[in-house]
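User: Quick sanity check before I run a bigger batch. Here is a single chain. Can you write out its predicted 3D structure?
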Amino acid sequence: MILAFIGVKLIIEALHGSNVDAIGPIHLPETGIAASVGFIIVTLAVTTVSSLGKSSYHRRQLQANPVRSAELEPANDQQTDAVGT
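Assistant: Done. Predicted structure follows.
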């Protein structure tokens, strides 16, 4: 999301640098630094809160149903193969 925003912003800035202010009937907006930084901060905040909420939800689900917790936990990476090496 952030990379797409930055890419579009770079294209619009390049067009403004070439004295192109509109593409057909669509006016190309000028996005200030404060708006850009605000967009990035809000996007990072939303994704952080969403991730923490999902982790908390998953943790509560494991505590509420301990029988399924073994099924939902990640597998141990230190298992030996069938040959025993």
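The first helix runs from residue 2 to 17.

User: Great, the batch can go ahead then.
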